[in-house]
Amino acid sequence: MISWLIAPLYFFVVLTQSKLLGSFKWLLFNYSLWGFFLTTFMGLVKPIFLTPAFAVIHIGIFQNIGSYLSTFALIAILVAIGTTCMGGMVSTLTYRYLMVFPSILKD
User: Fold this and answer.
1) Of 29, 44, 53, 75, which is the most exposed, with the fewest CB atoms less than 10 Å away?
2) DSSP-assigned states of every residue in the chain
3) Which residues of the chain have pLDDT under 50?
4) pTM of the model
5) Cβ atoms 31, 85 nearer than 8 A
6) pLDDT per residue over 65-96, tens digit each?
7) Which domain of life is it from (predicted)?
8) Are 91 and 27 in contact (CB under 8 A)?
9) Number of other CB atoms surrounding residue 28 within 10 Å
10) Domain limits, the chain
C-alpha cells in the first residue's frame, strides 16, 4: 500500500501548490481522491471475478464475516466507488479536451 505513503503529499501539492491550474485542480483532486478510495477498497476486499459467469467472491479481510449478503454489499460498494472514479476521470478528461479545443464550445 505505497499509495498510503504518497497520497498525503500528493493531495497537499494539488491543493496548495497548484495555483496555475485554476479550477482544474479540483477535478484532479476529485479523480485522485476517488482513485485512492478505489485502490484502498480493492486492497482490502480483493474481489475475484469468476468469468464467464456473473459471479464474484472476495478473499480480503472481510472474507469470514457475514454471509452472501455481505459479499453483495461489498461488491455494490466497489461498483459505486468504481463508477464515481470513472465519472471523475471522464470529467477531468472532458475539461482538458475542451480547454485544448475551445472552438467546440462556440459552435
Assistant:
1) 53
2) -THHHHHHHHHHHHHHS-GGGTTHHHHHHHHHHHHHHHHHHHHHH-EEEETTTTEEEE-STTTTSS-HHHHHHHHHHHHHHHHHHHHHHHHHHHHHHHHH-THHHH-
3) none
4) 0.81
5) yes
6) 777 787 788 888 989 999 999 999 999 999 99
7) Eukaryota
8) yes
9) 19
10) 3-106
